[in-house]
Amino acid sequence: MNPAFTFKIYTSASNLPSNWDHLAVNNIFLTSNYLKVLEASAPENIACHFIGLFNNEDLVGLALSQFINLSHVSSFGERDHCLKTEVRNFVFKNFCSNVLVIGNNTLTGQNAFCFDEILPVQEGLLLLNKAAKEIQNQFFKKGLNIHLTVFKDFSASDIQHFKIPEFKSFFLFSTQPNMIFEIKEKWQLFDDYIGDLSKKYRDQYKRARKKAEGISKRKLSLEEIRNYNDRIHELYMDVAKNAPFNTFYLPENHFEIFKKHLHDKFLFYGYFIDGELIGFNTLIKNGTDIDTYFLGYDEKCQREKMLYLNMLYDMIGYSVNKGYKRIIFARTALEIKSSVGAKPVKMFGLIKHSNGVLNLFMSKLFGFFEPEMNWQERNPFK
After folding, report:
1. Cα-based distances in Å from 341 to 290, 334, 349
2. What are the pLDDT tens digits along the chain (382 aa)?
3. CATH level 2 (architecture), domain 5-175+347-369
4. Between the CA atoms of 98, 104, 106 and 107, what dihedral angle is there, to the nearest 10 degrees?
5. Helix or strand run (H / E) with residue 40
6. 179-345 has which fold?
7. CATH topology identical between 5-175+347-369 and 179-345
8. DSSP H helices in 100-211
9. What pLDDT does residue 245 have?
């Protein structure tokens, strides 16, 4: 490694170098403003660190890491009550509960780092590996042993850069794909998208819209988000607790903080029946991409009104009409996202256990923890 390349670890986003955003300009999720918001609104069991990479005194790379303490989270959700779930939670909490992630555990995609052209990618990865070990040492001095180190969410081409000796002891894994919706250039308006659907999926759209009669939707201001805070958290938790796997739960003021600091980059849409909030979804503007963020809904209304499907159509409508290029639909609900036109993009990560013996069995351990997911890809277009 070139000795001119070094790293520095920051425990607060307020202390980042003044030129941090010069590098992060192409990804809102690595900008200092977003990182401050993330730090202020982080779940109780997540602590952020920020890594600056330097060529002598010049900032040439930056990265995000998150320490996740899973010991107080029922990681496998409340939906499935069975012996396997109990065993999973026991093993997870006792042998895998302290996790260091290089990346952002609240998002899907490569939001871990960005490097200047002057920093070769593999040199940057070597630095990040050293930084991860240093963060582990810092926790060890506090009496916390990091069980797992994870580098998450890389494309097939990006993961090739990790093929160096320093990452040989890591296990390469792939989980649920990132569902990405590519917006065709010929779609100038949402109606153009509807016109490209096959009859079966145009009928699905019409049926969903018919079911949604009686629902009103509007964009909520900061003041309204604050006023509906308790109900928003209740709806979010209704969805989160039914997920097959959880590593965190958002704090009650999470969306309020996001709206307060990201302003019009963060969109919050509420869905109402007779003045009662029965669902919401959130979007984050990231250059020419729209990233879908967290949502919540009343399960009874969701079933009766096809609320989730209507939300997906609303997200597509907004993004097409506003001229965005892609929607990052992330993971979960793969089949229904596929039914509106999103395509699965395989994502990869690397994981290592600090216990050398357990690390030898990482492939079996990972297969035990990863929830099974069977789904059928759809093609809704003509």
Report:
1. 15, 11, 25
2. 788 899 999 999 999 999 999 999 999 999 999 999 999 999 999 999 999 999 999 999 999 999 999 887 764 454 445 555 555 555 555 567 899 999 999 999 999 999 999 999 999 999 999 999 999 999 999 999 999 999 999 999 999 999 999 999 999 999 889 999 999 999 999 999 999 999 999 999 999 999 999 999 999 999 999 999 999 999 999 999 887 778 899 999 999 999 999 999 999 999 999 999 999 999 999 999 999 999 999 999 999 999 999 999 999 999 999 999 999 999 889 999 999 999 999 999 999 999 999 899 888 877 766 666 789 999 999 9
3. 3-Layer(aba) Sandwich (3.40)
4. -140
5. helix 32-40
6. Aminopeptidase (3.40.630)
7. yes
8. 121-141, 190-195, 199-211
9. 75
Quick check: 67 and 49 in contact, CB under 8 A?
yes
Q: What is the pLDDT of residues 278-318, one digit of tens each?
A: 999 999 999 999 999 999 999 999 999 999 999 999 999 99
Using a 10 angstrom Cβ sphere, with 0-12 exposed, 13-18 middle and 19 or more buried, the burial of residue 130 is middle
364: tokens are 């079996």
Please give the Cα distance from 181 to 69 (Å, whole number). Answer: 33
User: Nearest CA to 240 among 98, 52, 75?
Assistant: 75
Show the 3-state SS of 239-269: HHCCCCCCCCCCCCCHHHHHHHHHHHHEEEE
CA dihedral angle for residue 363, residue 365, residue 366, residue 368, rounded to 10 degrees: 120
148-154 vs 98-102, strand pairing mode: parallel
Q: What is the DSSP letter of 120?
A: -
Cβ contact 312:336 at 8 Å? yes
Strands 178-182 and 343-345: antiparallel
Alpha-carbon separation of residue 234 from 131, 221, 237, 279 (angstroms) = 38, 19, 5, 10
Amino acid identity, residue 362?
M
Q: Is the pTM of this model over 0.85?
A: yes
> Of 328, 308, 217, which Cα lies nearest the Cα of 268?
217
Question: Per 3-state DSSP, what percentage of the chain is helix, strand, and coil (rounded to 5)?
Answer: 40, 25, 35
For residues 296 and 99, give the distance between their C-alpha atoms in angstroms, rounded to a whole number: 27
Domain boundaries defined on the chain: 5-175+347-369, 179-345
